[in-house]
Every structure is written in structure tokens, then in C-alpha cells.
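Example 3.
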Amino acid sequence: MFTQFFGNYLLKKGVIDADQLLTILQNQSTVKIKLGTLAMCEGYMTASEVEKIHILQTHVDKKFGELAIEEGYLTPEQVEELCTTQRPDYLTFGQALVDGGYVTAHELEDLMIDYQSEHEIEEDDLNDTQKDSISVLVNDVYTFDEFESSSGCVNYVTLLFNNLIRFIGKDFTPLDAQILPEYATKNCTFQNIMGDLQMFTGIDMDVATSIEFASRYMGKTMDEYDEYIEASVEDFLNLHNGLFSVNMSNDVGIELDLEPLGHVVDSIISLDSIVFYIPVIFPFGTVNFLLSPNIFKG
Amino acid sequence: MAKILICDDSILARSQMRDMLSNIGDFEVFEAKNGAEAIEVYKENKPDMAFLDIVMPVKNGIDVVKEIMEFDKDAKIIMASSLGNNSNLKAALEGGAIDFIQKPVDEERLREILNKNLGGR
């Protein structure tokens, strides 16, 4: 989850723009993480040392690991460890940034340090999916003052990001939320949550994005927009809201009920209060997740 | 051949259940996409078992259970419940449904329900 928000952080800092973010997300799957980046991330080497080895590699035909051992930066055991360790997701993102020429290895190192320090992220958290540490990050980025239960919304959004990772893929970046008096939909699936924490929830995206979203969710390629695509998106929202309801009941004793799902196309969602939406950028398109304290009847 | 009614507003849920049923055995399957349609199809075909979604447009699963039970007191109705619908599920079971299955449906659980309630049919 820290990886996903790192993209958001870079956007806010002006390091990359939205188009560049999309390109990085699209390239991420083909990125090969270099040994130097791994060594830097583990704290075995500094960016300068990595750069020095890269320069040496232009003079002699040797592998990075061999040269790093010769130069005394790494031990053979460390090279072995780096080659066999599972790659953390944020490293793939970082490598794609460097490979794309958006930042140098030095700049990446600094940005990572700033990012961790601004959000008080511990080293261990970077590979962690602890619910509490993600909630803190969600709380840092989004405010839900307009809602009756801000903590309920944080739980909702935290679970949403976890479910996206679980059911759709981890190659996304959530952007800052937009708050509007009304919202113009493209292809929107919605569901009202009723009970002690009443909320309108929705997913909105264009047709092409819906097809890819549904394909990922169903685990099979779907080519044309049809009722199965619509039902798949509905199924995702219903499943997510169901899990949220169960969590709220188990964790804080709040009982919720879900209304039937609805679908609107090219409509205006106008409620008596605000519509809060979070755009989430995937390589295949942008998915907007909607929330409002007031329910919507379609 | 046993007759099964699947009632769910999601075409995806209906087709997944239909696929599972065909993996399990030979059934004559009827579908309905809302509560009102489910009652109509039930009365017309008198299925051996009906799987009803709880949250549906037009008429919800709880009302459908009551109406079907009035028409056929021996109806074997199984509620297909999404997460987060426990209070509705309780009402449906009190209304006469004999069991429930959690969605997304697990094929083994479906097989178990069919064996338990339809026996060798």
C-alpha cells in the first residue's frame, strides 16, 4: 500500500505528472530490478557506490555483484541474499522511475527518505500490509469531515485499497480526493449502505476501463462491454461493501445493511450533501470511487 | 431430473451457479432476475429447490420466501447471501427458508446442500 501512495506523493511533489505516472504504471510489469537498487534499499550500498559500480561496468565486462564484491561494498553472502530475496513492490515502482529517466538513483533515495519521514513510515512497514499502518496513511491523505463517522470512512477506504490489491492488482495509484456538490457519471455502479452508518458508495469509469477492470476481477479476458461486465463490477462493489459491513459488525459493533445495487450512465448524481470521490489510476484507466453521507436513489 | 430455480439480479451470479450445477449433476435449471419473477417461475414450474438472493430489486428475498411458502408449504428454499446481510438472512430463515449458502458460492458447499436436501435425485 505504501507503494501505491508513493505515486500520489510524487505527483504532489511535482516530480512526475499524471501522464508520466500512467506510463510508469504501464511499464512496471516489465521492469527488472537491478542488484544495485536492491543493495541500496537494503542499506548495503549508497547511491554513490552503486553509481561507481555502474561506471566500472562500462570499463570491464563483469556483473554488478562481482564488481561490488571486488570493491568491498558487498560480501558474496549479501549478493546471494539480494539475488534470492523477494522484491518489494515499491522497488519495482522505484526502478521504473529511474529506468524512465524521471529521477536519478540519488534522487530516488532522497525521495524515499522524505516520503517515509513525512508519513512516519518505518522501514518494516514498507513490506507490511498491517491494517493499522495503512489506516494511518489513509488518514494522512484523506479527510472525511463531512461524514458522520470519519473513522468508518477511513476503514472503508483502507479496506477498499486492500481489496483492489487482492482482486484487481497492485499496480495503481490513488490520487487525492475531490469533493463536489454533484458528480457527472460515466458508467457508474452504486450501492447505498444503510443502518448505523448510512452512506452512498459507487464505482465510476468509462466503458473501456470497465472491461479491463472486470477482466481482472473475473480472471479472464473479456473483450466487449455487456451485462457480464456490468455484473462483475457490481459484484466487486457488493463484495467490498459486504466485507466492510462484516468488519464494522465484528470490530465496532455497528450493524449495516446493503441495498440492491444500481447502475447509472451519463447521469448527474446530486445529493443534499457532497460527493467525495477518489480517482485511482491503473495502467488501463482511471477508476473513480464515490462516497457520500447521503444515499442516492438513482 | 431435479428442477432448480436460481433467483438473483446478477447475471454473473446466475451463470456461476448454473455452471456449478452442471458440474455437479443433471438438473433442469430455471432462472429469475428479481423477486416478482421468481414467484412467477416457481408457481409455473414447481422446482424441487430454489436458491434465492436476499437483496433484490422489485421484491426482496424475504418477501419472496413468504409468498412461496404460502403457495407451497413444502418448498425447499435456500438463501444465497452476500456478506453483510445477516439480519436479512435471519428473517428469511424465520420465514421458512431451510438453509443458506454464502456468496460467492463454493461448489463443495452447493454440492453438500443438494445432497442433503435432494438426496439421490
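Chain A touches chain B at residues 218, 227-228, 231-232, 234-235, 238-239, 241-246, 249, 255-261 (CB under 8 Å). The beta strands of chain A are 173-174, 178-184, 187-195, 199-205, 256-258, 262-265, 268-282, 285-292.
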